[in-house]
Amino acid sequence: MNNEVLLTELSFKGIRSSGPGGQHVNKTASKVEVSFNIETSMAFSEQEKERLLHKLSSKISSDGLLILQCGETRSQHRNKAIVIERLLELIQQSLKVPKKRKKTKPSKSAIERRLKSKKEHALKKSNRRPPKIE
């Protein structure tokens, strides 16, 4: 992943935001929306693109764009910084390769303990039954 190339490929849009700000909210576009096309990006290898498209499939639009928004603060510049930070964090988390699970075998003592408790439980249950009359 190449962050410098990635940052040049982002496209930003200012939107009027709800929330704090009074009349200022009605006049300025402080909410920031960032869109990023993973398929056409030059910042990732083909393998990384496949992993991102698979992991982020629920967040990618039908146009193939990954879209994030931020309207938390009154400042457009601060919202832009927050949304870039979120996008980079999301991409880094999605690029992580999960560790393969190694199968483990229970120890002999654990197997013996389990069988012993099963026998005790079965004995307790069998003692509760009424005796057979022949």
From TrEMBL:
Residues 16-32 form the Prokaryotic-type class I peptide chain release factors domain. GO terms for molecular function: peptidyl-tRNA hydrolase activity; ribosome binding; translation release factor activity. It is an enzyme of class 3 (hydrolase). PANTHER family: PEPTIDYL-TRNA HYDROLASE ARFB. It holds the Pfam family RF-1. Residues 97-134 are annotated as: Disordered. GO terms for biological process: rescue of stalled ribosome. PROSITE patterns: RF_PROK_I (PS00745). InterPro entries: Pep_chain_release_fac_I. This is Aminoacyl-tRNA hydrolase. Gene3D superfamilies: 3.30.160.20. Keywords: Hydrolase. It comes from the Bacteria. Transmembrane segments: none annotated. Residues 97-106, 115-134 have a biased composition (Basic residues). Its EC number is 3.1.1.29.
